[in-house]
Amino acid sequence: MGYILNKDQQDLVDLAKDFAQKKVAPFVAELDRAEVPGEKLYEIYKEAVDIGFCGLEIPEEYGGMGQDYYTVAAVYEELAKVDAGFATAVAASGLGLKPVLQHGNDAQKQLYADNLTGEKGSGFCAFCLTEPNAGSDAAAGTTVAVKQGDEYVINGTKCFITNGGVASVFTVFAITDKTKGVKGISAFIVEKDRPGVSIGKEEDKMGIRLSNTTEVIFQDVHIPADHLIGQEGKGFVYAMQTLDLARPMVASLAVGIAQRALDEAVKYAHERVTFGKPIIKHEAIAFKLADMDIKTEVARSAIINFLNTYYAEPKRNYTREAAIAKCYAGDISVEVALDAVQILGGFGYSREYPVEKLVRDAKIMQIYEGTNEVQRIVISGFLAAKK
Ligand code: CAA
């Protein structure tokens, strides 16, 4: 059945679907193959910002759309059906925004709102947690923020940063007290135009090629002390809380990929005739399609289960439900996309058809925002804590 939305929410999801199909889809194949994405991609990004897709969850009082996460997930799914790279760029802005929405003050929320609605910025932000030696072990980062009077000075290099090259503001995690381990990490706001901020190499990725992924380097970057988000020493917990909410949104991208793979496979199975009948009438194909449908629907249900938990009991810990949604949706998106390739056979393996790209796009769903191994660490941790 999927998301139960009111008319306004459904209208927004329909708008996202229409935008993706009319404005993104015609350029996906070309942009997926381009060495460097080029201006066309940035034109599409700008149109998306102007509509408000990067500010979906920003409360209306700050100039955002004030949408709930059911609607956000449904919008992301529609965008990802057409291109998961483009959807990743939009969702990564939501990721960078969340620590500020959860723990920032009014001025900080307004600063992000202005950036993400394109009022005073590119429309994109980025979440800078990962470092070359701190991926799954997120607490192992070495970026530091040293307090000097009424400023902090930030030094360090972040990597694999989605939107690194297009963001106008960064949410940066840095050590403020190295004697305190995870309790010595804090979260900061750093605008791109501050002296000492530079963008390093752009990753040449296997998939999600319509998203921009770069290193971001901070060299003696001075920021005002009021750019600290929340309290000093709480940065790691803020990052984890953000990921608890963001991982189910990644799951919605994975579901978008899986749904697209299923739709393409069903369409082909009706058209393709072997041994005198459409291949959908062959049990081997029909059952594979049924399994693809089951997995996609169950993955979407896992997101809804997370959201029901999140909204019904705001104080309840929802880390487990978030990890289950992300892990399951990430895994099945790869399986379903591979099944679509199998059903399309040689055509599925050819770049002339869209399904080989879905496999390449799906693979990252098991890696970013916490590998699925990390999700299993989190889930099994809850089991181990039970007597
Ligand atoms: N909510 C609140 N607090 C939490 C928490 C949560 N979900 N998870 C951990 N904490 C708290 C713990 O309670 C603990 O605090 P106390 O000591 O006071 O109890 C503290 O944080 C440290 O917790 P752990 O000891 O469990 O931390 P750890 O170092 O063992 O790491 C981990 C745990 C789950 C493996 C974590 O490092 C992790 O999630 N790693 C993956 C990182 C990740 O997802 N990176 C993605 C980057 S973003 C990205 O990919 C985006 C992109 O560009 C698209």
UniProtKB/TrEMBL annotation:
Recorded superkingdom: Bacteria
All residue ranges annotated as the Acyl-CoA dehydrogenase/oxidase N-terminal domain in the record: 7-116
Acyl-CoA oxidase/dehydrogenase middle domain mapped to chain residues: 126-221
Domain Acyl-CoA dehydrogenase/oxidase C-terminal: start-end pairs: 233-380
Keywords of the record: FAD, Flavoprotein, Oxidoreductase
Essential cofactor(s): FAD
Protein name listed in UniProt: Acyl-CoA dehydrogenase family protein
Statement: the UniProt record of this protein carries the keyword Metal-binding: no
PANTHER family on file: ACYL-COA DEHYDROGENASE, ISOVALERYL-COA DEHYDROGENASE, MITOCHONDRIAL-RELATED
Keyword Iron included in the entry's annotation: no
InterPro entries attached to this UniProt entry: Acyl-CoA_DH_CS (IPR006089), Acyl-CoA_Oxase/DH_mid-dom (IPR006091), Acyl-CoA_Oxase/DH_mid-dom_sf (IPR046373), AcylCo_DH-like_C (IPR036250), AcylCo_DH/oxidase_C (IPR009075), AcylCoA_DH/ox_N (IPR013786), AcylCoA_DH/ox_N_sf (IPR037069), AcylCoA_DH/oxidase_NM_dom_sf (IPR009100)
Family: Belongs to the acyl-CoA dehydrogenase family.
